[in-house]
Each structure stands twice: as C-alpha cells, then as structure tokens.
Design goal:
The chain is of the alpha+beta class and about 60 residues long. It is about 40% helix and about 35% strand.
C-alpha cells in the first residue's frame, strides 16, 4: 500500500488544473504547475515475505 501525503497547496493546484480542464481551457502552464510543485520519493519496504513500494508526495 502506498503512503501519499497531500498538502493543501498541492490540492489547490490540482483543483485549479481540473477546473480549467473541465472548462476546456487547460493551459500548459497550469498543467505544469502540479508536477513542478511536487517531489516524489519512492522506496521499497520488505518485511518477511512481503515487499511493498512506498510513495511520498510533498510540495517542494
């Protein structure tokens, strides 16, 4: 199971991009703000016979 932490700032960026997309006016600049504002860290956690991938998303 992934552990994803979303900040209020990131959610606001996602909402703005979604609103523009729904209105048919999504710009490259707005779409680019979301990945530019995030830092994704992944890792692998092994416990006994189980292995899972962990994901942490945060604003940079």
């Amino acid at each position: 199971m992934a552990n994803i932490e979303l900040t209020d700032d990131l959610i606001a960026l996602e909402r703005a991009a979604w609103a523009e997309q729904q209105e048919g006016r999504l710009t490259v600049a707005t779409a680019a703000r979301v990945p530019q504002a995030t830092k994704v860290q992944t890792g692998t956690l092994t416990c006994g016979e189980y292995t899972t991938t962990t994901v942490k998303v945060s604003c940079v």
